[in-house]
């Protein structure tokens, strides 16, 4: 019996090493996708909560599609946290393609006051924003991707 157990153990180790070497030899030339804000629409307030819709564009620079389970995001404006949200049912980004979608965002009116105060102190200047998005890709063993975009909303005098 010990010979049979040893043979099974050796076969198990050989098969495991063969599978692991196959995974290690896979050459995924992976590049980080980018996320850009394409639109910003204010919706009617609901009690003490202000709702928005933000248009996003996810660009896939890879030669394989990126199926997306969901996304969570936070929007900072003028250095203040303005809004956050989550969304599912995001369209798959084709290989070397883009995926455009609209996500809901909400903020408390009290949180919006801090941003408004900061905006008032910067009258006539461009306003900076930062979008941080955590993207859950539906590919086995692919970790969640965090993408940060910094930009400016042009409000300055031309």
SSE topology:
Layout: H1 2-24, E1 34-42, E2 49-59, E3 68-77, E4 80-88, E5 98-108, H2 109-121, E6 127-137, E7 145-153
Characteristic terms for this protein:
158 residues, 4-stranded antiparallel beta sheet, 2 helices
Task: Note down, in words, how this protein is organized.
The chain is an alpha+beta fold. Helix content is 23%, strand content 44%. The protein has a 4-stranded antiparallel beta sheet with strand order 4-3-6-7.
Number of helix segments?
A: 2
Gyration radius over CA: 23 Å
| Assembly of the depicted chains | single chain
How would you sum up the major sheet? 4 strands, antiparallel
Structural class comes to alpha+beta
Helix share bin? 10-25%
Distance between the termini: 87 Å
Explain briefly what this protein structure is.
With 158 residues, this protein is of the alpha+beta class. Helices cover 23% and strands 44% of the residues.
